[in-house]
Amino acid sequence: MRNGPTWFNITSIVLGFSFLYLPILLLVIYSFNESRLVTVWGGFSTKWYSELLNNQQLLDAAWVTLKLAFLTASIATILGTMAALVLVRSGRFAGRSLFSGMIFAPLVMPEVILGLSLLLLFVAMDQARGFWTVLIAHTTFAMCYVAVVVQSRLVGFDRSVEEAAEDLGCPPLRTFFHITLPIILPGVIAGWMLAFTLSLDDLVIASFTTGPGATTLPMKIYSQVRLGVTPEINAVCTILVGLVTVGVIATSLATKRQQVQRERDERAALAAN
Questions:
Q1: Could you read off the pLDDT tens digit of each residue along the chain, which spans 273 residues?
Q2: Range of 75's domain?
Q3: CA-to-CA distance for 258 and 154, rounded, in angstroms?
């Protein structure tokens, strides 16, 4: 039997990654284009990044998007972690199937349906649409993704560590923050990053639930792209790609460092015993 990847597997991987990342690479390259025509290379230049600093509308939309994504990720992480704990630790209880279905419904529900239903809810409540309605909408669909990630981390959790801490007199709340949370922290961080990314690039739901003064960057880019792609759009998209890439790498390194440190502590504890 022949071991190792075949030419078919290698070709499939190359074509797949090219399809995914080549458009992003072209966007980054043309953000340094001298020409205003984004399809014609006119030489290397960084002037569009300087022009971006003078585009107050794009800067305002970017600030709203980053603030919205940070708040959405933080709230969704808290609520999603609580939901995952209920699903994993509470066993069978009345209404569990309904609770689980309501948590995971946004995973399979089309964004158009979710956005329209939230719009009708806000209209029925006579709630003025703006930043806070978008925040509620983004938290609603991002929370389920956090719950899935944290739940997968809790399923393989060794509860004997918690039981040992409680036997030594540690209160349940302190046990969670000092024992449980540090162990599941990689899953919590991954859920936060996923919620942040989902909120950062959402267009459909924000279009239904936003109002004056709460225009997000995807909405602004979409409205401008319909009139033609400008180099400033390439520049701001490149900055966002860079921020997300740095965040993912930093999170991966921090998670890896934490896992290595925990393994060292476990080996030291075993050696001491």
A1: 456 667 888 888 888 888 888 888 888 888 888 887 777 777 888 888 888 888 888 888 888 898 999 999 999 999 999 988 888 877 777 777 888 888 888 888 888 888 899 999 998 988 888 889 999 999 998 999 999 888 888 887 777 787 788 777 888 888 888 888 888 888 888 889 889 988 988 888 998 998 877 888 888 888 877 777 777 888 888 888 888 788 778 777 777 776 777 677 667 766 765
A2: 60-217
A3: 17
- Cα–Cα distance measured from residue 181 to residue 144, given in angstroms and rounded to the nearest whole number: 19
Tokens of 261: 């440190």
End-to-end CA distance of the chain: 46
Instruction: Identify the three-state secondary structure at position 33.
Output: strand
Going from the C-alpha of 180 to that of each of 177, 187, 196, 250, the distances in angstroms are: 6, 12, 23, 23
Query: CATH no. for residue 92?
Result: 1.10.3720.10
Question: How many structural domains is the chain composed of?
Answer: 1
Report residue 89 as tokens.
Answer: 């630790």
Which is nearest to 136 in space by CA: 71, 66, 85?
A: 71
pTM over 0.85: no
Residue 33 tokens, joined: 């284009």
